[in-house]
Amino acid sequence: MIVTTAHPELPADLQTVDAFEAWQEQHVHEGNYEFVRGRVIPKPTMKQDEFYLADFLIRQFVKTQAFQQGDALLPEADSYIDGFRKRIPDLTYVTAAQKQAIRQGERINTLFAIEILSDSESYEDVLDKLQDYFDGGTQLVWYIIPKRQKIFAYTSPDDSKAFKGQAIISADPLVPGFQFVVAELFA
Question: Which of 45, 66, 81, 102 could covalently link to 71 via disulfide, CB atoms 3.0 to 4.6 Å apart?
């Protein structure tokens, strides 16, 4: 279960991402925090036993045409849903056009998020994250379940397909060529 932080110095009227980020600049804390409709949610950093998953995924991504065209797959980058919600996927797909928009001061939401299920996440937490991502325009979410060696590919909060073993998971058509045999991720 993800626990909402209770900082004594956190203003009671903190309701927007802008207000949260202004507060965050004044009150430096270690770690990442997601912000969802007035709640500050600690976002644990990726655990060392998850590094190999992220490394594998990034190595597969750099083989794609999307990477050659300037797109990126970044660990733990901000993804802005709206003025009231900011999530931090374990891996965030960012297009070259989105990177340019960021340089111009715009906030972006990822088109493709990859999450690694942690022991502290409840089913409700997963459902909330999925809804937030798709509310912001995300087109694909992969939820990796390491203990089951399975990946759920969501194309909406209610539509998913499970992949495991020798099944090939693909991010087509969003990221053509970003695909692999699921078992290789866990090898």
Answer: 66
